[in-house]
Design a protein that fits this description.
By secondary structure, this protein is of the alpha/beta class. It contains twelve helices and 21 strands. Helix 6 runs antiparallel to helix 7 and helix 9 crosses helix 10. It binds flavin mononucleotide. It holds the Pfam family Flavodoxin_1.
Length: 420
């Protein structure tokens, strides 16, 4: 039975897990699926001078959290509350905890102040708080603790907290995953590798460059134990999870070797063949530019997931969609929506498509590309119904212009047939 752990669990000398289990959760933060629910891990550290609470739980699990906390500490013993990440699933019980232990001093990262203020509102004036940065050290409850800021893993505010005498890293969402199993430890729970990688892919991947910076700071600490805010506590070979963050981040980094050929992907959808003909011409035009490798994909024939990996390592993306009922077609939107888990800033973008009378699809796609912080160097190409030979030349020109912009021969050219 995985539903409840009645007692706090001592995971190191004077350190207790006092979190909550949520085995029935199937969707997290609207975007993540979880076949195994999740946990909201919170901890206490007892030292000669009192108790530190590290993180809390989602608000609806507060009762469970306070019940466990009360088994290991009195509220008047709590000297500090460390907040590694201020997302509501870890801070839901913080306002009530502070009311019960108003003498406690809050520690969170410099970048967390705005979220802390939003969380506590005017109540924050009642409490003391310290904003931490990498390398800050102090003796909380009489035990040596240092902080490691890990910005953008996965919010600006995130940090890890290192209990030096136990070499225990409280890592917040870093190295976490959505996997609920009341056996708690990585060497005792079921196989959760898929969950760990899925979490990385959807939560950490867009910030992979920040992940690499964080790993550079964490690896030298050589933690003996990693206690994340979700999922199993990593006591068996904890450094392997740190290294796997490095490997995963590197695997998603585009190949930035100077002088390599650029990759341009052309995606399209077409009901009657007009946008398909445009796509082939855009592809041919782009392919005529030396140093650019161009690939053409009909979205009718593919699952989206593998495209996302291709897109991450590509330098440019062009989308072709007919206008249907004043919009671009759903498979195109599906790809564009799935780009939230990857880094698109600075990639080249373009759009083209056939239309009948109003032609909204192309400008709508361009807006989305700009919203993803992509560079749209030439105005998108719209053609009424089936393209003529002359219009196919325009498509080739458009493809060539985009490809030239990719290899630096940029002379952006405005091609607009809206008035045809
Ligand atoms: C169901 C349907 C709805 C359409 N709605 C629009 C529209 O809102 N605006 C427009 O400009 N064209 C509209 N069209 C016209 C198509 O965009 C046009 O036929 C186009 O050439 C189709 O391109 P394709 O051959 O690549 O599918 C519509 C066509 C269909 C079949």
């Amino acid at each position: 039975m995985l539903a409840t752990l009645p007692q706090p669990v001592e995971i190191a000398e004077g350190v207790h897990w006092i979190g909550a289990l949520d085995p029935d959760l199937r969707t997290f933060d609207l975007i993540l699926k979880t076949a195994n629910g999740t946990t909201y891990n919170a901890y206490t550290v007892r030292g000669p001078k009192g108790v530190v609470v590290v993180d809390t739980v989602k608000e609806e699990f507060s009762e469970e959290f306070f019940a466990r906390l009360e088994q290991v500490a009195g509220y008047d013993e709590i000297r500090a509350v460390v907040l590694n990440h201020l997302e509501p699933d870890h801070t839901g019980a913080v306002p009530e905890l502070m009311r019960r232990a108003p003498q406690a001093h809050i520690f969170c990262s410099v970048r967390a102040l705005k979220v802390l203020t939003a969380l506590m509102k005017e109540e924050l004036d009642n409490y003391g708080y310290t904003l931490t940065d990498t390398g800050d050290r102090c003796a909380l409850s009489g035990r040596p603790i240092s902080f490691v800021n890990t910005p953008y893993l996965h919010w600006p505010d995130t940090q890890c907290t290192f209990l030096e005498d136990e070499k225990l890293l409280f890592s917040g969402d870093v190295f976490g995953c959505h996997f609920c199993d009341d056996r708690l430890y990585n060497d005792r729970v079921g196989d959760f590798r898929f969950s760990f990688e899925y979490y990385f892919k959807h939560i950490m991947r867009p910030f992979k460059r920040w992940v690499l910076e964080a790993v550079d700071k964490i690896e030298p600490l050589a933690p003996d134990l990693i206690a994340p805010a979700h999922g199993p506590i990593l006591r068996d070979n904890p450094l392997s999870y740190v290294r796997s963050y490095r490997t995963l981040s590197n695997s998603y980094l585009p190949n930035e070797v100077e002088g390599r050929e650029k990759s341009l992907l052309v995606f399209y959808m077409s009901a009657y063949g007009a946008t398909a003909d445009m796509a082939k011409a855009v592809h041919d035009g782009a392919s005529s530019v030396e140093g650019v490798r161009v690939s053409l994909y009909d979205l009718q024939g593919g699952e989206i997931e593998p495209f996302v990996d291709l897109i991450e390592s590509a330098d440019g993306l062009v989308f072709g969609s007919p206008t249907v009922n004043g919009d671009a077609v759903k498979p195109v939107w599906d790809v564009l929506a799935s780009l939230i888990s990857i880094e698109t800033r600075g990639k080249l973008g373009g759009a083209f498509g056939s239309y009948g009378w109003s032609g909204e699809a192309v400008p709508m796609i361009e807006d989305r590309l700009r919203g993803l912080k992509m560079r749209v160097p030439a105005k998108g190409l719209r053609i009424k119904f089936h393209p003529t030979e002359k219009e196919l030349d325009d498509c080739r020109d458009y493809g060539r212009t985009l490809a030239e912009s990719l290899v630096g021969k940029a002379k952006p050219k405005v091609v607009d047939f809206a008035d045809l």
